[in-house]
User: Fold this.
Amino acid sequence: DLPDDTAPDTIAQHLLALAAHAKPAHIRTALFERVRDGEASHAEQVAMVLHATDAELAAEVPGDGPTYALNLMPKQVGLLSLYARRLAVALELDPELWGKCPSVDLLADLVADYDNTAAEAPLRDLIEATNRAQPEDGLA
Assistant:
């Protein structure tokens, strides 16, 4: 168990070490279950965000991981900021992730809810990245 104030970079190192022993889909499922059941520590919530917003893992693991993670995670400014910053980068690296990501409408609702917080700008940036990644035909 990591303390709640563990830096995301340290949590990412732990996820990388864990990846040597478990498949990414199994790690994702375990993190989702912990958060969904309300038993996750803050470090585990951060781990879920890191895992779900990693471009390679989001592409590799089946399902809409980025969207599901957003739906599961506590709506805390720090987590939302981390999520939005990382997912915007992931979409820039791999625009094909667009179909696994939350809709612009959902993100706009979050921007309205978190106006004038540290999450607002990253969420707006994620909306822009989502719009840039959207296929011309609008289909994933």
